[in-house]
Amino acid sequence: MLQHKSIRAPRGREISCKGWQQEAALRMLMNNLDPDVAEAPDQLIVYGGTGKAARSWPDFERIVAALRRLENDETLLVQSGRAVGVIKTHADAPRVLISNSMLVPKWATWDEFRRLEALGLTMFGQMTAGSWIYIGSQGIVQGTYETFAACAKRHFGGSLRGKLVVSGGLGGMGGAQPLAATMNDAVFLGADVDAARIEKRMKSRYIDKMTDNLDEAIRWARDAVAQQQALSIGWVGNIVDLLAELSRREITPEVLTDQTSAHDPLHGYVPNGMAYEAALALRESDPQRYARESYRTMAEHVALMLELQRRGAITFDYGNNLRGHAREAVERGFADAETLRGSVGLAKSAAATHSAPQNSTGFDPFKIPGFVPEYIRPLFCEGSGPFRWAALSGEPRDIAVTDEAVLATFPEEAALCRWIRMAGERIAFQGLPARICWLKYGQRAKMGLIFNRLVREGRVSAPLVIGRDHLDCGSVASPNRETEGMLDGSDAIADWPILNALSNTACGATWVSVHHGGGVGIGYSIHAGQVIVCDGTPEADRRIERVLTADPGLGVMRHADAGYELAQRVAREKNVDLARGE
Ligand code: NAD
Fold first, then answer.
1. To test ligand 1's pocket by mutation, which of 261, 280, 469 has the most ligand atoms within 8 angstroms of CB?
2. How many structural domains are present in the chain?
């Protein structure tokens, strides 16, 4: 049996599979579980609450064995982290097809999911955990950096210098916030209940200072703001307690958001009013009470955010369904809107001046806008999204070569070039060296072909893989996040991610996945992913061009169909065929 502690993707040019496509899947699966990459590798947890790479350790070994014997005209089928079959396909077909956490809609609740998970029938795949293309916190640094930059541009004249950014959750994704904030010159103050998570960010240089003393944390933050110094601070404690204290001392941050694992009230979010260790014990001994406490805390959390928003903080939801669960807390009677107002000192005007579509209490979490409609949707209309790649050689030099190639290919994209240079200087790699940058429709296929040429010409020492987050323009239906507030009301239409996965399969991506529940939790989203290998061959050229055109093309189509003029214009200018018979 493989020792889980020793999981680390093989490096170099020697392979143990029958081709680079299978080898790539094997290395990226193992890379997801590398202790330098995964949040809790001993439990196969990669990030995002309980987002896993395989269902169990025997299942991990079964996938590894299947990949090693997989022929170049076969496809491995993976059902929620378990290898369930190999089918004869053809050389251009994906080598792996993955479906994670899918449930029939009527049964799509956390309770039912957990019942099935306890029976060993499923696992939570999050987005890039169960689809084997997580690259550590860097994956989200750039998106977070862009979001903070867009916020700075919209509200603060382009810079966050001397501004205080407050947030909760410094885990796999949330850990990107401190670095993204200081890259925007801000002062960042973040809370995480788990000291080990903050220590991990200190080690990777994503965070500058940590303390478990709240007075000290606030003093550091105020001093840094006064001196206009970019500084990130991690405080060990519950975000709700931090917000309550800021509110009490009448300190209003300029920017307020949250990335606790609020998508999962049991195995993610941590309630307040008890020590962290006591919360972990309660999670084991009385899961139902724990979940109720979690919901109650989320309602308080949102109430405090609404209050700070009322006092002037630019507040936005950061894709963890905190708002949805806070609303559920009130609807299910775990929190009372009146008590909430009293307990957090929420001013009457804050809670009562807006419409409350789901309940009559006046407590409306959705008064906090989501980050996608606020900052990201215009990018989606251009087919822009999180293009990422990893060097299967394990050589950081290979990523330096690809960085140079990006800079040489898009010199006119100032923000992109700034990011690539900054990432080269400030991002510590976790596991296999990797890079991310947002590229648009057209740019992705162009870059993919250039990467394949770098492999062919031996300018990088082994093949590269290109993948992306499922948080992309055409690959996700998630009404509280990526598809919140769509122009035509199509927020919950989930045909698009399915069409995306089918298209990527038809075009010959190396592995394709469909998932349920990523980002926002069971019942709230359906999404798809693809990864494609650049092995330097002409066949790979053809697959890359097809996949990296169709994949972002779906994003342009989805937004054009919803009526976004920008997407319609991009479709016209870039010849994206909208099947309109013109
Ligand atoms: P994670 O599980 O790795 O980390 C979550 C962290 O939150 C943990 O360190 C945990 O200790 C901490 N935490 C939980 N409750 C807390 C509380 N009340 N106070 C303080 N700390 C608390 O999760 P992650 O990968 O960092 O993702 C965070 C959330 O963001 C998830 O809900 C995820 O689905 C979502 N997400 C957002 C994006 C995006 O682009 N915005 C992308 C992916 C995931």
1. 261
2. 2
Cα of 239 vs centre of ligand 1, distance in Å, is 12
pLDDT, tens digit (0-9, with 9 covering 90-100), for 150-192: 899 899 998 999 999 999 999 988 999 999 999 999 999 999 9
Instruction: State the Cα–Cα distance between residues 189 and 62, nearest whole angstrom.
Output: 43
- Beta-carbon contacts of 2 under 8 Å, excluding residues fewer than 6 positions away, are 57, 60, 61, 64
Nearest atom, ligand 1, residue 297 CA: 18
Q: What's 242's domain CATH number? A: 3.40.50.10730
Task: Confirm or reject: Cβ of 320 under 6 Å from ligand 1.
Answer: yes
CA 348 to centroid of ligand 1, rounded, Å: 30
Shared domain check, 107 and 26: yes
According to DSSP, the β-strands at 255-256 and 231-236 are unpaired
Both 284 and 384 in one domain: the answer is no
- For the residues 459-465, what does the mean pLDDT come to? 98
Ligand 1 within 6 A of CB of 268: yes
**How much is the pLDDT for 89?**
98
Taking phi first (over 0 means left), then psi (-120 to 50 degrees means alpha), and beta for anything else, what does residue 247 get?
Answer: alpha
Task: Calculate the CA 559 to chain-centre distance.
Answer: 21
Give the contacts of 437 (CB within 8 A, at least 6 positions apart).
Answer: 142, 387, 406, 416, 419, 420, 423
Quick: pLDDT tens for 339-374: 787 665 554 433 333 333 444 467 999 999 999 998
Identify whether 516 is part of a domain.
Answer: yes
C-beta of residue 191 within 8 angstroms of C-beta of residue 242: yes
- Residue 337 shares a structural domain with residue 385: no
Ligand 1 pocket: which of 101, 173, 371, 472 to mutate (most atoms within 8 A of CB): 173
Cβ–ligand 1 contact at 562 (below 6 Å): no
Lowest mean pLDDT among 354-358, 431-435, 454-458, 547-551: 354-358
Q: How confident is the model at residue 426 (pLDDT cuts 50, 70, 90)?
A: confident
Q: What spacing in Å lies between the alpha carbon of 190 and ligand 1's midpoint?
A: 12
pTM for this model (two decimals):
0.88
| Best residue among 210, 259, 266 to mutate for probing ligand 1, ranked by most atoms within 8 Å of CB | 259
Place of tokens 């906090």: 368
Q: What is the residue range of 220's domain? A: 139-372
165 and 83 assigned to the same domain:
no
Q: Are both 163 and 95 inside the same structural domain?
A: no
For residue 414, the model assigns a pLDDT of 85
> What single letter denotes the amino acid at residue 285?
S
Q: Are 80 and 99 in contact (CB under 8 A)?
A: yes
Do residue 148 and residue 242 come from a single domain?
A: yes
Determine, yes or no, domain membership for 424. no
User: Is the same domain home to 317 and 203?
Assistant: yes
Q: In this structure, are 271 and 339 located in the same domain?
A: yes
Q: Which residues are catalytic?
A: 437
